[in-house]
Design goal:
60% helix
């Protein structure tokens, strides 16, 4: 699909407004969840992370902090 001039200028205006607000565009490459083996690897990594004592401490801290935020459940 080809972008029209109006699409390009609209995106340019959008980026200019964000930049004027002190924002910076950031693009990330992340693992593709549709790739075979993604779920297995994600599960393996999350299991490893959940077993770390530092992870348990961090999760406890986050949960405790969230309790002090009004409307957070």
């Amino acid at each position: 699909m080809q972008k029209t001039i109006s699409d390009q200028s609209r995106f340019q205006r959008f980026r200019s407004r964000r930049k004027a607000l002190g924002m910076k565009e950031l693009r990330l490459w992340v693992p593709d969840p549709s790739v075979p083996g993604f779920n297995k690897e994600a599960h393996r990594q999350s299991k490893l992370a959940s077993e770390l004592s530092e992870e348990q401490e961090a999760l406890k801290f986050i949960e405790d902090a969230a309790e002090n935020i009004e409307g957070w459940e």
